[in-house]
Design a protein that fits this description.
CATH architecture: 3-Layer(aba) Sandwich
Shape: globular
Number of domains: 1
Number of strands: 5
Bound molecules: tetrahydrodeoxyuridine
Number of helices: 4
Helix content: 25-40%
Order of helices and strands: HEEHEHEEH
Strand content: 15-25%
Largest sheet: 5 strands, mixed
Oligomer: single chain
CATH superfamily: Cytidine Deaminase, domain 2
Length: about 130
């Protein structure tokens, strides 16, 4: 099933995280319209605000490959809490995803909770607001 492989990809991507400051490793997997899954991990920086979230890295890979639509996204973090995308990443996802797109929030051992983009970013501002 697509969702299972997206979840597994996000969990595997966590292993690449560069997070020496927070110690919080995050992996993300975004599926494009073609079916291909693009990976990202968080990349922190000694100048803290310059760090990049896992979702942003994965979206950049999707765009770099020439894709423009996200059909599914999985995010995997550690700890006991849900690793939901930060506010900035919700807006970055919005640029390329419909309200109904699943956002699969995972821990190291698998899926913890399934949201849609509309759940996490209701009444959002997107590309259509500019037309
Ligand atoms: N982080 C992500 O990469 N994605 C999220 O959804 C939440 C937070 C990263 C940013 C930072 O490197 C670390 O997790 C702690 O906030």
């Amino acid at each position: 099933m697509d969702a299972d492989s997206t979840v597994a990809a996000a969990i595997a991507a966590r292993a690449a995280a560069y997070a020496p400051y927070s110690g919080f490793h995050v992996g993300a997997a975004v599926r494009g319209e073609s079916g291909t899954v693009y990976l990202g991990c968080n990349v922190e920086n000694a100048a803290y605000p310059e760090g990049v979230c896992a979702e942003a890295a994965a979206i950049a890979a999707l765009v770099m490959a020439g894709e423009r639509r996200i059909t599914e996204i999985a995010v995997a973090g550690g700890g006991d809490q849900l690793c939901t995308p930060c506010g900035g990443c919700r807006q970055k996802i919005r640029e390329f995803a419909a309200d109904s797109v699943p956002i699969l929030v995972c821990g190291p051992d698998g899926l913890r909770r399934r949201f849609t983009l509309a759940d996490l970013l209701p009444a959002s501002f997107g590309p259509h607001n500019l037309t």
